[in-house]
Amino acid sequence: MSKISAYPLDPALLQLKGISPKQIKEHEKLYKGYVKTINEIRSRLQQVDRADQNPRYTPYRCLKVEETFNINGVVLHELYFENLGGTGRPHGPIVDALKKNFGSYEAWEKDFKAAAAASRGWVLLSLDFRDQKLHNYLADAHDKGIVDCATTLLIIDMYEHAYFLDYGTERERYIDAFMKNIDWDVVNRRFISLQSWADQLNSADHTEESLY
Predict the structure, then answer these.
(1) Distances (CA, A) of 4 to 7, 65, 110
(2) What is the pTM of this model?
(3) C-alpha dist (Å) from residue 97 to 7, 8, 108, 115, 132
(4) 91 annotated binding-site participant
(5) C-alpha–C-alpha distance, residues 76 and 38, integer Å
(6) Any binding-site annotation on 205?
(7) Residue 158 in 3-state DSSP?
(8) Tens of pLDDT along 48-72?
(9) Residue 157 annotated in ligand binding
């Protein structure tokens, strides 16, 4: 299996409002650590014994558990860094979708920030393909709380490493800073792409036998 490589850091992330370059650079180191670890895990998986497995302990089981944790650590951080670097001013079709699903943009923002304050890991604004609606999902860890059949439009990292250098225990100030740096162009691009995909799936449901 080929190795994955860390994405280069966007220089715009070193010019954020309220999130320091030092905070971002330290955060990037953590992300690169996940990239290194997933490559090590996948290398070992090519050689590990797959015989006589059980759900209590085997080297294979440990590698598979850590594979999930670390690959999500890679992907979630890439999504996080990508949706930073903007003006924080919401615009585009995602705003109309938020109004439709939450009643108003302000109602969505209030719920998103509340979920962030309650989270130990991540909060993901996601398009759920099962009900075709937007949801703020809370994931306490890379491998805990990620919802199947839902894809991320916007994500905030609420692990302490994301904000502690700048804000210590003042999580709410970090959340406010994050909101001021959202790149809504990225969010809209994700939304438009996923909406098109969801429409295709919905159309297929009317022409093919349901999977459920």
Answers:
(1) 9, 19, 37
(2) 0.92
(3) 30, 31, 10, 19, 11
(4) no
(5) 14
(6) no
(7) coil
(8) 999 999 999 999 999 999 999 999 9
(9) yes
